[in-house]
Amino acid sequence: MADEQFEDPRLASVYDPLDPDRSDLDLYAAIAAELGARGVLDVGCGTGTFALLLAGRGLEVTGLDPAAASLAVARAKPGADRVRWIHGDARALPGAAPPVRADLATMTGNVAQAITEPDDWRTTLREVRQALRPGGHLVFETRVPARRAWLEWNRADSYQATDVEGVGRVEQWYDLLDVQGPLVTFRGTWVFARDGAVLTSDSTLRFREREEVEADLAAHGYVVREVRDAPDRPGREHVFLALRP
What CA–CA distance (Å, rounded) separates 145 from 125? Predict the structure, then answer.
């Protein structure tokens, strides 16, 4: 199940205007070019920003996401017909017709951390590997647990108010709810000034250590080629580049 932030149509419709800076995607686009990828599987594609960026550059792109509302936003964007959209998580890949075959699979925006259950994580690694051609790569990011990013997930640090075209003023902030080992739960709140509606969405992320991620990748047949730093968030995130031999 996707979080309400991505599944609720009203929240999905304002996701992009409330988070317009997607410079975090530059790294992934550069890796796609570096690897000479022709086909890309964007796991957790959300509202389709990255999938459409690559499709606009002539790549064959499949966007996969469990949130129907987010996919509806993606499908309504210019150029959406260039992307193959699949509703579901990694379990939907084996049944896809025609089969998904990619040179590169991505999980941008900390999608990997949103896969919190160990069985779901293992399934994702397994099914994504099957969708990769031999010699293909999986790339994704995770926050460095020691940096404790959740300390900034409070109203004082996260509050913003944005005037959204056609919607009106929207206030947004996050509050930390719970930290239990590697699992961190927080709540997002959105206030729509036009009608006073207040919507919330609870999310849980898993903070995995680098060694744990490398061990998981190796156990599922990947070779970790490199662990990079995220250039726009130096020292705060690991970017894993793993090969399907």
Answer: 21
- Predicted confidence at residue 207, as pLDDT, reads 98
Report the 10 Å Cβ neighbour count for 203: 20
Instruction: Specify whether the CB–CB gap between 213 and 124 falls below 8 A.
Output: no
Pairing mode, if any, of strands 102-107 and 197-206?
A: unpaired
Give the dihedral sign, CA 222/228/230/235: positive
Supply angle C-alpha 187, 193, 198, rounded to 5: 30
- The DSSP-derived string for 5-55 is HHHSHHHHHHHHHHS---TTHHHHHHHHHHHT-SEEEEET-TTSHHHHHHH
Assign 194 to helix, strand or coil.
coil
* Residue ranges of the chain with per-residue pLDDT less than 50: none
Q: Return the pLDDT at 232.
A: 86
